[in-house]
């Protein structure tokens, strides 16, 4: 593979656009998997006899393995070669998906989900870092990352539509089996067309203490937020997980600052542009993931939509994301500074979210939901595109995998935090509303109405928090990110670390 998998540095890869098709397909599969299983969960739970207390593990097993191993996966991509890591990740993901679809009990289901997370952690950073090293021209890079950003942002909503179709017209097992053709096509295509630049490997020995500390720290953090959602913030184990996460991640930073070949070179995250991107992106994902969950429940429980109809209701958000990413973001990326896309993008998304705080039981879809989701999608798509591109811009090729892993880590941890934090806020507001109003409900139908009103009150309370989080993301993007527009032809580090950085005033942090 090494003979055909490399090309000379500095020379644009002739097959880069074909490669983008297969990289995008793999990314779509990983993002789909985050939401597609949610719609299938009630059916799978019933078939496999999973208890209510254990059902969260279908989602949590994947999130823990994926979130915990991302940095390790990114480093493996730098060490082992991105193409090889990418193809291996796809093959493993397909096998894990087959096991999930064929599951006969809860242990097999949880194990397959964890295995999906392990191979997803190899696949996701390898995919993003392949784009980073294959697209060196600023305009081409903008187009490539526009497509990638649209998939990264909109794929979750596509998962809701596909999950609804498969669950309603076939059965829940197909939400797993559908990954297999995706993986086979992407792996075969990648094997044939992807050629990595020479000199982009990081062959330093693996930082084992860093791997252990980062994995345990991230797993503790993700599990702490997941547990907080079901057991409350004051639960002893929840608090213990947060304390453990803080200690482990602090120890990780200390180790990384001292070892010769760190798992996560601190130069990757201390550069202010990348630091601002990881932070603002993580916050935006917190807001977005919580909203996916609330809108799904609102449409199905309050409005009585079927799973398929619910999926289609998210189409304006997908359309907005694709437009924002591939049209607005791509066209402006080489003309304006990234912060002038990300900051306003997050603010437009916040306005869309603000509209959704007006939800009531009888809210019109066309009057409130449609414009709210459209603005949210437009804003997020516009902001995601430069974020994905800038996160790996200026990084030496040998660090591209781990820099890409940090993007995925901020998204994954943001998703776990968003689901737990906003769910807790919603549940608390619902309980408070019902307690205050249930006394006046004398009939069964009035009590049911109060319960529904309480749920909607919970959703809108949480969405108000999400508005604030998006505004904070915009402020961070506007203040931290100070790189100029990438107006040159080649981006530093995009090939083999030997490109020229044009109109990016912040230098790459020296070794």
Automatic annotation (TrEMBL):
CDD domains xrefs: MFS_MMR_MDR_like (cd17321)
Matching SUPFAM superfamilies: MFS general substrate transporter (SSF103473)
Any GO CC annotation of this UniProt entry: plasma membrane
Localization in the cell: Cell membrane
Short name of any one Pfam family annotated for the protein: MFS_1
UniProt keyword list: Antibiotic resistance, Cell membrane, Membrane, Transmembrane, Transmembrane helix, Transport
UniProt membrane topology term: Multi-pass membrane protein
Domain Major facilitator superfamily (MFS) profile residues, every copy: 19-485
GO biological process: response to antibiotic
InterPro entries named in the record: EmrB-like, MFS, MFS_dom, MFS_trans_sf, Sugar_transporter_CS
UniProt entry tagged with the keyword Cell membrane: yes
Domain of life assignment: Bacteria
Spans traversing the lipid bilayer: 20-41, 56-73, 85-103, 115-135, 147-166, 172-194, 206-225, 237-255, 276-299, 311-328, 340-359, 365-384, 462-481
Protein name: MFS transporter
Keyword Membrane annotated: yes
